Amino acid sequence: MQTEQELKELVRQKYGEIALQDKGTNMSSCCGSGGCSTDVYNIMSDDYTKLEGYNPDADLGLGCGLPTEFAQIKQGDTVIDLGSGAGNDCFVARAATGEKGKVIGIDFTEAMIAKARENAEKRGFNNVEFRFGDIEKMPVTANAADVVVSNCVLNLVPNKSNVLKEIFRVLKPGGHFSISDVVLAGELPQQLRQAAEMYAGCISGAIQKEEYLALIKASGFKDVVVQKQKEIVIPGDILSAYMTAEEIKAFRNDKTGIYSVTVFGKKAEACCEPGCCN
Question: Which percentage of the chain shows pLDDT scores above 90?
Answer without folding.
Answer: 53
